[in-house]
Automatic annotation (TrEMBL):
This is TRAP transporter small permease protein. The keyword Endoplasmic reticulum does not apply. Belongs to the TRAP transporter small permease family. It comes from the Bacteria. It holds the Pfam family DctQ. Coiled coil: none annotated. Residues 23-151 form the Tripartite ATP-independent periplasmic transporters DctQ component domain. It is a multi-pass membrane protein.
Length: 171
């Protein structure tokens, strides 16, 4: 399981790099074309916007995997281990609930987007909401796995505020 997650993480990192490179090239190229040649690439804005959306959602998956999302662990670090575990269970439950709502909304938007097309290139707008759909599923799996580990007392469970937490790569 750890190898599979690590490989998925590497693929996401490469996709992030690719999306960022495409964005930079398109936006920079469009700026140069506008100021130097008084023209531009009409599709550059649509493609760069699509890359940005995917960059954000793939980055959210990666941040979930590495426990890098913003969090306030000062309070949790001062709690007794039993209360810290309870706080982690509660927060995981709330995050899973919100992710289920996000998944439902992304699914509805994807269905709508299958019948709506972008202005210049004409690709289905579902490509935008598909990023949210993938993000919700991946984060549900990652958080569900960590919740299961917390419930079972697994040594690789990530409990925020634990002084002995391994940091990033324990999912």
């Amino acid at each position: 399981m750890h190898k599979l997650l690590s490989r998925c993480e590497r693929v996401i990192e490469w996709l992030l790099a690719l999306a960022l490179a495409v964005m930079v090239l398109l936006v920079f190229g469009n700026v140069v074309l506008r100021y130097v040649f008084d023209s531009g690439i009409a599709s550059a804005e649509e493609v760069s916007r699509l890359m940005f959306v995917w960059l954000v959602f793939l980055g959210a998956i990666l941040a979930t995997r590495q426990h890098a999302h913003l969090g306030v662990e000062m309070v949790q670090a001062r709690l007794a281990p039993r209360w810290r575990r309870l706080c982690a269970l509660l927060s995981h439950g709330l995050m899973l609930y919100v992710l289920v709502l996000f998944l439902q909304g992304s699914w509805q938007q994807t269905l709508i987007g299958l019948q709506t097309y972008s202005t210049v290139l004409g690709f289905p707008m579902a490509l935008f909401s598909g990023a949210g759909l993938l993000c919700a599923v991946a984060m549900l799996l990652l958080l569900g796995l960590n919740l299961l580990r917390i419930l079972l007392g697994h040594p690789q469970a990530h409990i925020p505020g634990n002084p002995d937490a391994a940091g990033g790569q324990d999912l």
